[in-house]
Design goal:
Four Helix Bundle (Hemerythrin (Met), subunit A); about 10% strand; Rossmann fold; elongated; eight-stranded mixed beta sheet; about 325 residues
Length: about 325
């Protein structure tokens, strides 16, 4: 588990979720003994209240109860430690792509509903990629939303990346084609592609994104990763959106933003369980350092709290 700055930011960013959980667990302890049926029922309610999801919560609590029974666990720190371990084990079933370092995808297609933070996510990933020594350009393939091109250009200036663009209203796939042509000619390592994000129920949006992805796949010779940016504050509604994007585009990893703005950060677990798509990155603030590759152990510790005393106090 990484120590220091990032974990501190993650722990601070998940304060609302952790307080939600620990507040309910404190109530459970005031009414029932650790390990009792009543205690486990309230643990389940606590996890569900954090948007972990019913199926995932049931599975996790059953595993923890089994371990507690087999090993004779009754102390609070033992039980919460087991809970953290099983939450972590429920995550990371598939390795998520890391688009900010090393070899791999040339094209990074970034999709999601407007307002989730796609463009700022692109800027953060681009900055991290450049800091890791990669050559990066941005593709302004959201050609319909007012000021979307200008917004990406501004971020490009801030992070030191060129932006390939056309006029507003142009064919997004043509922008992607030009960007990847330029990338090959200039020895670029990553092309981060900004896309439109009108309401996910619009069939024409999905058809447009499918076309963009086909062009990106062809021009990158299959070296493509598709990231879906989700707003953590949307909870279960975000999962419904993600299913539609995944059906249309086969999403490789999810970037979960605004984790610091919700008391339902357990949505990370529900995403893994309900969608089978790995969470690649989580965001807890506005700066580039506030977006980080996802680590199940760190997340579980930040979700439950690093000390059992936090619950019992």
């Amino acid at each position: 588990m990484a120590a220091g700055g990032w974990f501190d930011r993650l722990t601070s960013g998940m304060l609302k979720t952790r307080e939600n959980l620990t507040g309910r667990l404190k109530g459970a302890l005031s009414r029932s003994a650790p390990g009792s049926n009543e205690f486990w029922e309230e643990v389940e309610e606590s996890l569900i209240s954090a948007d972990v999801g019913v199926a995932a919560t049931t599975s996790i609590v059953e595993e923890v109860r089994r371990e507690a029974r087999e090993q004779g666990m009754t102390a609070l720190d033992e039980l919460t430690g087991a809970l953290k371990r099983h939450i972590a084990a429920s995550l990371g079933s598939r390795a998520a792509v890391d688009v900010a370092r090393g070899e791999g995808s040339l094209a990074v297609l970034v999709v999601g509903v407007n307002g989730t933070g796609k463009t700022t996510t692109i800027a953060k990933l681009a900055r991290q990629a450049r800091e890791n020594g990669l050559k990066v350009i941005l593709a302004a393939a959201d050609t319909f939303r007012a000021a979307a091109i200008e917004q990406l250009e501004e971020w490009g200036r801030r992070v030191g990346c060129d932006v390939v663009k056309h006029e507003r209203g142009a064919d997004p796939a043509a922008v992607v084609y030009d960007a990847l042509q330029a990338a090959r000619a200039r020895g670029i390592d990553r092309v981060f592609i900004d896309t439109a994000g009108r309401l996910h129920t619009y069939v024409n949006l999905m058809e447009e994104l499918k076309k963009v992805k086909r062009v990106a796949e062809r021009e990158s010779q299959g070296r493509i990763a598709t990231l879906l940016v989700m707003d953590a504050t949307t909870g279960q509604n975000g999962i419904a959106q993600a299913k539609l994007f995944d059906e249309a585009l086969s999403v490789d990893a999810i970037v979960l933003t605004k984790l610091d703005g919700t008391a339902k950060g357990g949505i990370v677990v529900a995403i893994e369980q309900d969608l089978g798509i790995p969470v690649g990155y989580v965001g807890v603030g506005e700066t580039a350092e506030d977006l980080h590759s996802f680590d199940p152990q760190e997340f579980a510790a930040a979700l439950i709290g690093s000390e059992a005393a936090e619950i019992a106090s």
